[in-house]
Amino acid sequence: MNGAERANLLTARRNLFRLLASMSYKLFIPGPIAVSDKTYRAMTSWVMGHRSKDFVSLFQSVQPKLQELFYTKDPVFISTSSAWGVMEGSLRNVVKKKVLNCCSGAFSDKWFDVSKRCGIPAEALKYEWGTPINPEDIRARLATGEFDAITFIHNETSTGTMNPLPEIMAVLREFPDVISITDTVSSFSALKIDKDALGIDVMLTGSQKALAMPPGLSLISVSDRAMKRAETVEGRGYYFDFLEFQSNYEKGMTPSTPVIPLIYALQSKLEDIFEEGLEARYARHERLNNKVRDWVAKHDLELLPPPEFGSKTLSCVKNTRDIDLPGLNNALKEKYNCVIDGGYGKLKGKTFRISNMGDETDETMQVLIDALDDLVPQFIGKASA
Which pLDDT tens digit goes with each residue over 124-133? Predict the structure, then answer.
């Protein structure tokens, strides 16, 4: 294929992506979220062998910015999987005695279920959905000496609740034998999470939420302490084995064939993030989140969690005005080509969720708010109709 033919092929691919984008709905759900044309174009880069020097160059090119974004000196491993892959894998790597699963929503509840399915001794520290984790409860349970690992979700996507991470980590520093596994799937890159300063052992995220990439990639950074624990644990498996990640990382590779187009997308997205600037990115997410909260208050609605524990990347709103959410979403699709979320799990219909994460701007969020202002009054009081 000559240069002109290659250029024509790339142009055709870009036009196809634009056509597909024009046919789809703009996603204001908490993930997957809207993906930019630039990110999609990055995925059209030519694939190379995953054991080649070209791949090593690609892999190593994203590491410095990933480490900066994680605020860590530890490696950042790249996994071709959803975040659940590395969430389950983390359990298999570090739990020898028993894990304490902090459960305050659909995804943290699921972590307890996954622990049991893996045959790992586990206990659930349970809260009502929308209630933040109380660090004192963690202290009381860990003081028993029963546990050598703990899992919790920083930003529980199902309830829009942001757990008090600094306070939780302050308690965990009192228990040096307990390995912390922290899900930052819907908060990573939207606010500062200083892995090393906080003392997080295993910090993981996925590509499809605040990073504004397509699904299928997860990122995980593991402390030296957690790596040493993994060396002593049997039954780690292969695909998510921390030691396999580490040995391949040192060669600029991944243990198994990775999804190379998504690594190109990651490279492109990191360029965007650092061009905007981290502090500016964090401030944008908080500003847009406040814009949604202002809309919530304007319509006499309220968040599910206490406001001070509300997420900065999405808003989970109580449906106290009996809004017909399926009807509202159909109208949003037909008239404004966008969608929100009608509640997750046992909160379906009782809450709705609006995302402000990723590439959203004041302008894009205002388009959604104007659309909601136009349509919501038509569907109030009609949830049971």
Answer: 999 999 999 9
